[in-house]
Amino acid sequence: IPTEFEQARPIMQTIEAAGYEAYFVGGSVRDTLLHKPIHDVDIATSAFPEEVKQLFHKTVDTGIEHGTVMILDHGIGYETTTFRTESTYQDYRRPDSVTFVRSLAEDLKRRDFTINALAMHEDGEIIDLFSGLQDLDNGVIRAVGNPEERFNEDALRMMRAVRFASQLNFTIETKTTAAIASHAELLEKIAIERIQVEFVKMLMGQAPQMGLTDFLETGLYRYCPGLADGQDLIERLRRLDHLQLASEVAVWTVMVYLLDLDHVKTTKFLKAWKNSNQIIDATHRANAALHGIMQDSLDNWLCYETGEEDLMTAADLAALLGKTVDQSALMAQYQALQIKAKGDLEITGQDLMAAGVQPGPMMGKLLAQIERKVVNNELTNEKEQLLRFVRDNK
Ligand code: ATP
Ligand code: MG
């Protein structure tokens, strides 16, 4: 039993002492049984939200309409969700309504895959109603119940299947795979933001080839933004040896690189996937650097504009794409830059004004010129030198 569960035991005992049931559920149980680190402890209980709130001093209504209350205990928050069923899915996504129930079995039945439908009692006992333990042992992702019905209810589950295949290095069971293939089109009903989360997790998983193979063979990719004709891209990604992507930016950069998108099309593609401006900017930088490394044309200016983090991403990706990269030489090139940002210049707008330059576009131009020359080592970043340049060029 991991320490996170140990710490939560008093909470479980409090709930049970009041006559209700409480179990650990979801990813934390699955990951514990796989001896993987767990991130969040989810608790399911027969107590209704108001009943949970009466039992503890500090709670937060994090999602009370879905039955979720966070219990605060010694600075740790525990998400506690009332057993529930989800009824009448009419739009292939979220249920129309949730109904709170007192039965654990009902709650486990609505969960997506057998490995996610295990519950663990505070004493360590496992409740396994759908042979989830066997599937965990065999490395299998299997829908709970009839896979076609389950994907009809909520099409996001298809993306979750390929994401877990990749994260866990598991195989999707045959009928579940077939149901994904026949229902792939329903993905169009799902908000892109939610598809994106699963897609990124798939590509960042420990065995992305696993997820990618199903993503390709079931045709799910066709219903993802910009990937209607993405077969070739997915094939190429899948065939990369040691495909390991360490960040979101790495995911998007390798995609736009392999798709060979120009700047405008890159922005369009990333926006279609609902990426934040921060991710879009970082991807542009990493992609420019990646092109530079691949073409042996990474100069000081490109290093500088890219910045350390995105440069490392580009270096990793270049290696992944088969380029021999001297990472330490690359880092040395970056570290040797005289400035890492404009603010590092030993001269300011004030200094320029003191030297007789009028504030305005001319001053901006002159500063930009100085910045470029310092980065290219055509000027030394010393006040006197820079002022001399200003006097000669104003
Ligand atoms: P992660 O490690 O990524 O958090 P997880 O399995 O905990 O994986 P969550 O999205 O946190 O995934 O969901 C918690 C649990 O809720 C799942 O294990 C599953 O039992 C259930 N669940 C989540 N999303 C769905 C869904 N779309 N359909 C059915 N059950 C779901
Ligand atoms: Mg979780």
Automatic annotation (TrEMBL):
Record domain tRNA nucleotidyltransferase/poly(A) polymerase RNA and SrmB- binding: where: 169-228
Keyword annotations:
ATP-binding, Magnesium, Metal-binding, Nucleotide-binding, Nucleotidyltransferase, RNA repair, RNA-binding, Transferase, tRNA processing
**Into which EC class is this enzyme placed?**
transferase
Q: Name one Pfam family in it.
A: tRNA_NucTran2_2
Please give a single GO biological process term from the UniProt record: tRNA 3'-terminal CCA addition
Q: Which family does it belong to?
A: Belongs to the tRNA nucleotidyltransferase/poly(A) polymerase family. Bacterial CCA-adding enzyme type 3 subfamily.
Something else known: A single active site specifically recognizes both ATP and CTP and is responsible for their addition.
Q: Which NCBIfam families match?
A: PRK13299.1
List the protein's name.
CCA-adding enzyme
What is the scientific name of the source organism? Secundilactobacillus oryzae JCM 18671
